[in-house]
Amino acid sequence: MKRIGVFTSGGDAPGMNACIRAVVRGAVYHGIEVYGIRRGYNGMINGEMSKMDSHSVSNIVQRGGTILKSARSKEFMTPEGRKKAYANLMDLGIEGLVAIGGNGTFTGAMIFGNEYGIPTVGAPGTIDNDLYGTDYTIGFDTAVNTALDAIDRIRDTASSHDRIFFIEVMGRDSGYIAVQSGIAGGAELVMVPEVLTPISEVVETLKQGWSRSKSSSIIIVAEGDEEGSAQEVADKIKRQVSEDADIRVTTLGHTQRGGPPSAYDRILASRLGLGALEGLMAGQKNVMAGIINNDLVYTPFEDTIRLPKPINEDLLRMVKILSV
Amino acid sequence: MKRIGVFTSGGDAPGMNACIRAVVRGAVYHGIEVYGIRRGYNGMINGEMSKMDSHSVSNIVQRGGTILKSARSKEFMTPEGRKKAYANLMDLGIEGLVAIGGNGTFTGAMIFGNEYGIPTVGAPGTIDNDLYGTDYTIGFDTAVNTALDAIDRIRDTASSHDRIFFIEVMGRDSGYIAVQSGIAGGAELVMVPEVLTPISEVVETLKQGWSRSKSSSIIIVAEGDEEGSAQEVADKIKRQVSEDADIRVTTLGHTQRGGPPSAYDRILASRLGLGALEGLMAGQKNVMAGIINNDLVYTPFEDTIRLPKPINEDLLRMVKILSV
Amino acid sequence: MKRIGVFTSGGDAPGMNACIRAVVRGAVYHGIEVYGIRRGYNGMINGEMSKMDSHSVSNIVQRGGTILKSARSKEFMTPEGRKKAYANLMDLGIEGLVAIGGNGTFTGAMIFGNEYGIPTVGAPGTIDNDLYGTDYTIGFDTAVNTALDAIDRIRDTASSHDRIFFIEVMGRDSGYIAVQSGIAGGAELVMVPEVLTPISEVVETLKQGWSRSKSSSIIIVAEGDEEGSAQEVADKIKRQVSEDADIRVTTLGHTQRGGPPSAYDRILASRLGLGALEGLMAGQKNVMAGIINNDLVYTPFEDTIRLPKPINEDLLRMVKILSV
Amino acid sequence: MKRIGVFTSGGDAPGMNACIRAVVRGAVYHGIEVYGIRRGYNGMINGEMSKMDSHSVSNIVQRGGTILKSARSKEFMTPEGRKKAYANLMDLGIEGLVAIGGNGTFTGAMIFGNEYGIPTVGAPGTIDNDLYGTDYTIGFDTAVNTALDAIDRIRDTASSHDRIFFIEVMGRDSGYIAVQSGIAGGAELVMVPEVLTPISEVVETLKQGWSRSKSSSIIIVAEGDEEGSAQEVADKIKRQVSEDADIRVTTLGHTQRGGPPSAYDRILASRLGLGALEGLMAGQKNVMAGIINNDLVYTPFEDTIRLPKPINEDLLRMVKILSV
């Protein structure tokens, strides 16, 4: 393999730049040419590709976002779009791809690979940590720490005013950010998509807290919780307890996506970027590089897309014990 | 004056603890006894007061929130409530008060002072910086930096995805947080309660940006803007430009109230706490201590409550120039 | 087991408070009484122990340091000291101990356990990550992120001035902090106690960088490196390259020990605190609770003390590739 | 004036990029061409100058360091050097300069202006805040907050171990960083170049603290203190009190120079950059733009270089009261 392309796709995540850097520097190290493709599959279709060298990735390891920009591409979902993309890659002599993104990204790569035979190795870049085939995804640790910083700030106010706060964190299908930021933030309860926490249980928890003179409480709600958004949950609670209860809601939103990546994310991203590149060089294709139990593993896109990643029930149990 | 009380009231603000510390340590230094009153006027009414010494305020200068807790008190708005409060203060022999809070706090203190003659000196503690009689209020600088940190994170995502972001910051009647975080965050536009920015101007700004190939934009909306919340503004814009425009909204919310105070806020809080105490000792009453042009000044509560604090028009002009 | 004690000993580490909290809340949850012992073994000897309940550990999960304070105890190294300690524990009816600390702490506990039969389960609290029996120790992730934040700041200056910086991080016998902060910080080279990097290799790396027009370089030196402190290494280099080379040295020092623990450290500390407690309840003794490959394991103190924890050679290889 | 140049010189400071951005965007706004000169006076001599437009300064407002790089130039101190520099400026038709830096920078500009008549307006960029003619310099607020963050971390350890810490902060001739970070960090004592604090007074303060059962203490030493470095002061103290005293030393070093600028610094830098530009346009020369009591003022280089900036004695008094 003499020439490869690298791109980021889907929602951006802190650490994507560290991953791009590892792919590029690794390629330079191994004597392979590397092209950066801008705006994900859109750039492949529109020919937004340019050669990168060691300097192209200087001073980016600490930056959030992605210097290659990211996008979701409707055109790549059509055969015509993929045809154009393939033609562009062939023009440049690109023989393989490293795709940094999530399941949407890998689905595109799998279809593309099946149609045109171009090998892709993926690196899991998404703050949600909802990908089978790796213990953690790039961006997750930073997102949890960003959420945690916000929770710490809100706790200052909650305990100064004896208030109850419902804080909504990201995670449409996955409670990972909620559980980890909840444990670390000393939350009284964590509501996640994977396990239903009925409103009655929330009320019960709050009442138990009051009976033990807990004056303030923090409840973390994952975006995708079945009982609704943090605001909806808070409204339901208010109706059941009392209008006197000083209940507030904060939705952390997009702040969780950005910021300088944590040490963990930079190292993970570097390992996975290098792992994806070296996998591609060794003949891997249509697989995602992941780290499981500290070992580099390759999982077929088919599995990362299809298989669910269960949440750690031990951690949910821990929330209960620690909020006693 | 041999014995005084100190309390925090209204919304909490980072630096309130540094201010309490300065009052207590200052009192110890000057040989005056000091009582901490918990939960604002409620604690005065319910007798939640206890003696503080130098150790009571150890290791709090760096903490957000307020160790004395804060609350809004309906009972203190009644003559009966104030009567109880006065009786409790008399029981303990408290001869003067330092009140840390905003206009609601000072209004209560003024009425109380007029009725019972007990002198109060205020220290301006509110993140909104909406108090006449001081250049900056305690908590403002921290709130701006917290908002800025969020804006920086969101810019990572905005520029990775070529998106437009509307970010709502606190400030029901005041655009101070919006203007300062907007300039510091490199925002394209800042919408504040003091000056109407019509939707048409927002649209115009966005279009000008696109014509200069600005691919991402950040617009800061103060909570109290006349065009509505950030979500409402974004909805209006979307209707006028295009449904294709990738527009997102984030409301920063209560995270802006908490967190370790910045150096500026700790120093300001220390100066104002000490200034309030020493003013009280020197016979001041019904005034707020403030810093104007680096000098300590005392302004009658009447004025801090009644007079508006105009926003700096130069800064608004600067937003326009810097987003060229 | 009806009553236990918990203490922190040796150098403090961020997350110790989260660990104390998990032990205390876990004990309350399981209906066990728990005493907090202050200042490590000294407090055991001097009888500085008091009962803790759920409220005792409120609002500490986010704080660096240790509310139980820590110390190294010379007296506990004597039979007389341990005798006093045992008598004090017996007086209170304490049947088991959770010890949060490093190898010094565990050595003391092992001797004490052998002499008096009192069971201790340890939780690894040390920023150095130099303990066999766990993938990571409490405080390590925070220390790496603190070092990384400093490296990021210094890089701003290094690249503004085309300078070479030698940055010394903690790690007397272990290069873990150096390697992780070095990879994450984009360092050109990392010098660790486990593997000798001769001065000639440092010079070679710098020269290669210059030949590729790298204008600034960052080299991380672990405290315990054989070539000496960062200052000594820098002096040697200066003699070999040129007095014109703009070389600076910064020693990060004790800032690496403090600060609010990262999410990772709070969760790890919570798991290990609870794991130590539940191990003790289940009859474990003279073992340290650790997390290996995401599973809770107990390793005899004997092994944690005796066995070396090798550094990950893959990571050292990665430093080279990524600085190409 | 149709074409100007902008450069940074001397030690870098956080906010320099925000200042460059304000100069460039301001120039675009006013229809003036602007050239960026790299590496300070060296780039003027070597012809490292290139045209900047609005995009050149996108996404830099939040970055530490300076994108134009900085250096100290020996060659510019010679008439030959300045001659070359002038010739290069003339070749490009540059009619005026904005110089961002400190006294060394302004001294060069003054001599250059006197020799060749080219007008320069300065913007004060230095973390030390040691420039007459402005209340604060660009970078100072960030440096204080960086020092403060380190002090907060060290306090965790100091109070966990009942230790005394001597922390050295930057400030060769000026105690501003020391005083502000000392007050904000709750230090027991602050030692500054402007006012001698004899060792005996340090000892006295420590002893008084012990007599009031203060178990830990933090003493801030400015780099340029007459009693020596923090290490030297600590050694002297140790000899006078006791070898048992658990005294540690940390020198914060270059971390104080970098990092994302605070809100305050970004706004100050924007105002001063714009102020320098608009001053230049209005015919000012050989002056520094500054902000005094919130007003923009221009002070002749002669005065900024010659006149001392006294330290605020009130703040020193406050350290004493607050550490009671």
UniProtKB/TrEMBL annotation, chains A, B, C, D:
Q: Where is the Phosphofructokinase domain?
A: 3-278
Q: Which residues form the active site?
A: D128 (proton acceptor)
Q: So where does ADP get bound?
A: R21, A22, V23, V24, R25, R155, G186, A187, E188, R212, K214, S215, S216
According to its UniProt record, which protein family does this protein belong to?
A: Belongs to the phosphofructokinase type A (PFKA) family. ATP-dependent PFK group I subfamily. Prokaryotic clade 'B1' sub-subfamily.
What is the organism field in this record?
A: Dyadobacter luteus
BP terms from Gene Ontology: canonical glycolysis; fructose 1,6-bisphosphate metabolic process; fructose 6-phosphate metabolic process
> Quaternary structure per UniProt?
Homotetramer.
Cross-referenced Pfam families: PFK
**Name assigned to this protein:** ATP-dependent 6-phosphofructokinase
Cite the annotated pathway. Carbohydrate degradation; glycolysis; D-glyceraldehyde 3-phosphate and glycerone phosphate from D-glucose: step 3/4
Might you report a single GO cellular component term? 6-phosphofructokinase complex
**What are the EC numbers?**
2.7.1.11
